[in-house]
Amino acid sequence: MSPIFRELRLERAACGSAGKRDTAPQGRRSTSCATDMSRERTRLQRLRRGADPMEISLEQAVEIHARALTHRLLGEAPSNARERATDFQKTGDSEGCVVWLRVAECAERLLREKAPAAPALDR
Fold first, then answer.
1. What digits encode the pLDDT tens for the residues 48-73?
2. Is 109 exposed, middle or buried (0-12, 13-18, 19+ CB in 10 A)?
């Protein structure tokens, strides 16, 4: 038996529908169990195809947000990120504040990298 079907069989057993007829009206499974089974089946199919859910690090997320902000707001991106950091600080979320300050720093770095180098003056 393939690992995929073995997992589905175990999942069915967890829902209480392994080896017995469902008692829901009109031959339907209970919605919570059917929904769980459907989600699990979809997850297993994705794993079989190699489409594992994307996992990114915090640093990658900071970079993605900074790039999106600089693309959308250009020079206003760092100040916008700092405003968000202040909002998080006001609500007591210090971790969110630190992350948005990192986004602001990354946005500043991206803007510096994009800025054309000042021409050297010939003397």
1. 666 556 778 999 999 999 999 999 99
2. middle
Q: How far is CA 76 from the centre of its chain?
A: 25
Q: How far apart are the first and last CA of the chain?
A: 80
Measured CA to CA, the distance from residue 17 to residue 29 in angstroms comes to 8
The widest CA-to-CA distance across the chain, in whole angstroms, is 91
Tokens of 123: 């003397």
Are 17 and 29 in contact by the 8 Å Cβ rule? The answer is: yes
**Predicted model pTM:** 0.54
Cβ pair 78, 35 in contact under 8 A: no
